[in-house]
Amino acid sequence: MAKRFLSHEKHPSGTIALTDSGPCVTSPTGPTRTSSTQGKWPPPFREASLFNLSSKEAVSLGKRYAKEDFDAGHYRLLCYGLWLGPLPEETRLYHKYGIKIEPVASCEVTQGVTSGADAYNTMMRSLLVQKFGTDIFR
User: Fold this and answer.
1) Which residues pair with 17 in a beta bridge?
2) CA-based nearest residue to 18, from 38, 40, 48
């Protein structure tokens, strides 16, 4: 079983671990996600702000967050539920396009989190397809 690393821990290879939600995904050059990243790596997603919102409010906020992240060059898709680590497709998206898959909640989620994350992903996918082309998610 793969060891789990916190976002501040170093992987034995010297790279920074990006998640503590499962087997780590590492970036060969990415800085830690806390402190100032100066646009090199996205800051942690703000899922706590979605937790107690209604679906309608969360959808609006999720879309806004996606646009803000895209404009800042922070490409990510959100997931929730049991995350078992990066799949080959997730690894391909990260290495080829810099798109990170970020777990935002485990198995206990609210309607706000699911609605906000789904709206975020819909908006982000649309923006990424415009930027990179229609075949990146196939």
Assistant:
1) 26
2) 40
Residue type, 66: A
Q: CB of 19 within 8 A of CB of 25?
A: yes
What is the CB-side half-sphere exposure of residue 88 using CA atoms within 13 A? Answer: 1
Q: Alpha carbon 69 to chain centroid distance?
A: 10
CA distances from 82 to 20, 68, 104, 131 (A): 12, 27, 11, 30
Location of structure tokens 């679906």 = 55
pLDDT tens figures, 8-22: 333 343 333 333 333
Q: What are phi and psi of 23, to 5 degrees?
A: -55, 135
* Residue 102 to residues 56, 61, 105, Cα–Cα distance (Å): 22, 17, 9
pTM: 0.68
Domain spans of the chain, in order of start: 1-30, 43-132
